[in-house]
Amino acid sequence: MKAWLRPNCNDQGLRLLKRGRMLLFFALIFLFGNNINAQDFHYSQFFNAPLHLNPGLTGIYNGDIRYMGNYRSQWVKVPVNYQTFTVAVDAKFLKKTFKQGFFSGGIELNYDQAGLSRMRLIDLNLSGSYTYTFSPHFLMTLGATGRIGQRSFDESGLSFNEQYTDIYGYDPTASNGENFAKTSLFFPDLAAGINFRIQDVETTALVDRLDKRSKVDFGIGVFHLLRPDQSFIGTSKSPLPMRISPYMMGTLMLGDNFDFVLNGTAQFQTSYREILGLAGLKIHLNRNLGKQFALQLDFGYRYANEFGDALIPGIEFFYNGWEAGFTYDINISDFNIATSKRGGPEISVRYIFRKVRPLPIFKICPLI
Known about the structure:
This protein is mainly beta. The chain contains four helices and 16 strands.
């Protein structure tokens, strides 16, 4: 197949072809081919999208139920921007019989749309995990995720080489010369992962007074174990490559009101390589119960394949059980000729619900 994706408009298509900054752009955006080397969407705030990072992070938080939402808009400066949206919830299943650990479960819904073809991915993920507590300071979690996904595209917004002639220019009524067996497909998938948590915690405290905050999570998630077929052409198959995501997320308590936060991950999917790290300073402005408020300033850097990709400043707010984060990608790769360095904003919101334990008998969750 020899298709370039162009707007379905005669004048606009010619203008884009004549502008040098757009030539680079169209060389980099999604191209259809006999095989589709699909890649997963990503978040700069990967630490605020834990179920997408590792099924082994299901239930790893201080509380009983966690609600999460993420939104990312990328490359709004160019005409084929990307948008990603995630909503998720996970919960612990604490039982007295689980003396050495606990089970957790979660559900996640993802929506991703990219490019002129409006390539869409919608998937529903069900995750489960078991956390074994070697001690209040050291925990290990094994997790797995089952997934049902749909991938689709719309060819009405595309134009192809066969529709351009030297005499008449672009003819939208001409045949595009392509033969797609389908424009939508469903597929099942599986993922698995392991997480280790080391933390400094007071297990005798009924409430969280934020006086023991140092912790570190590290582990690895492996996605697309079934390698589902992603091809829209009936004569060939295109297995979705496995994605491997090692990571480390740590908080170091510097004093009564200051923490140093460091989060890093590497994503590997066939030839695609991404390394992303963010460092932050968290300031606890109020640690009184019922009025706990903190502010965190972040700065990160993403390295993709062999090139620097983006600088990522950000800010996060924490109020009792609520958390909200905002980051903005500043594009520094060669692609900034099309984006004017505007990578795009990303927003995350999270709420952690904690049940009130009756006195004098209560079950303390060992996680901070």
